[in-house]
Design a protein that fits this description.
The complex is a heterodimer of chains A (113) and B (117). By secondary structure, chain A is mainly β. Helices cover 0% and strands 50% of the residues of chain A. Chain A has no helices and eleven strands. In chain A, strands 2, 4, 5, 6, 9, 10 and 11 form a seven-stranded mixed sheet that branches. Chain A has a four-stranded antiparallel sheet with strand order 1-3-8-7, with no helix packed on it. In chain A, a hairpin with an 8-residue loop joins β9 and β10. Chain B has no helices and twelve strands.
């Protein structure tokens, strides 16, 4: 079965650089979520989109922005990267914003040096 | 605000022994509860979910969980653990406590399971 695809899987950036993470949801899933998981931490919700509109926002820094495109894929843009942004970034998708389970991608490991 | 507590950071069991991982939640409305499993450096795999109805839910890999509203708990159980079950387990809560979407999940701190042969 098709799963959530994230690219790239690994990314190394220097401080103050920018990064773009991409997420391709499971076919026919219209809702995308982004989570950040620091080393040894639990995943923290960043932002979500439903039908290309932002549906909820969590602890996402102002330096980060995201959007969902017409084909439902989503991109997380991160600027002025800081060492503390080093983490595993997960994308998840679901069918609706109702009580539906979320399916997670393999994650993008971002390392900021 | 919603929150999840997993009291046990690390649990060690012998292969073939039974397992119970504890999860307590705090939520202002009807919670939707989930258990996910994560192997090192990997994504999160959904084990099971509770939305409503029967409070004992069955999941994949022989796992089950019981929702107890009076105790605000959603403990995960398995009668006989296999070496391949070694991983980190996360309990999560979602719902719509006056928010704009059901989707946002709040995770517990995770429980690392070690299985001895």
């Amino acid at each position: 079965a098709a799963g959530v695809i994230q690219s790239p899987r690994h990314l190394i950036k220097e401080k103050r650089e920018t990064a773009t993470l991409k997420c391709y949801p499971i076919p026919r899933h219209d809702t995308v979520y982004w989570y950040q998981q620091g080393p040894g931490q639990d995943p923290q919700f960043l932002i979500s989109f439903y039908e290309k509109m932002q549906s909820d926002k969590g602890s996402i820094p102002d330096r980060f922005s995201a959007q969902q495109f017409s084909d439902y894929h989503s991109e997380l843009n991160m600027s002025s990267l800081e060492l503390g942004d080093s983490a595993l970034y997960f994308c998840a998708s679901s069918t609706t914003t109702g009580p539906a389970e979320q399916y997670f991608g393999p994650g993008t490991r971002l390392t900021v040096t | 605000a919603q929150s999840v507590t997993q009291p046990d950071i690390h649990i060690t069991v012998s292969e073939g022994a039974s397992l119970e991982l504890r999860c307590n939640y705090s939520y202002g409305a009807t919670p939707y509860l989930f258990w996910y499993v994560q192997s090192p450096g990997q994504g999160l795999q959904l084990l099971l979910k509770y939305f409503s109805g029967d409070t004992l839910v069955q999941g994949i890999k022989g796992f089950e969980a019981e929702f107890k509203r009076s105790q605000s708990s959603f403990n995960l159980r398995k009668p006989s653990v296999h070496w391949s079950d070694a991983a980190e387990y996360f309990c999560a809560v979602g719902g719509n406590a006056g928010g704009t979407s059901y989707g946002k999940l709040t995770f517990g701190q995770g429980t690392i399971l070690t299985v001895h042969p």
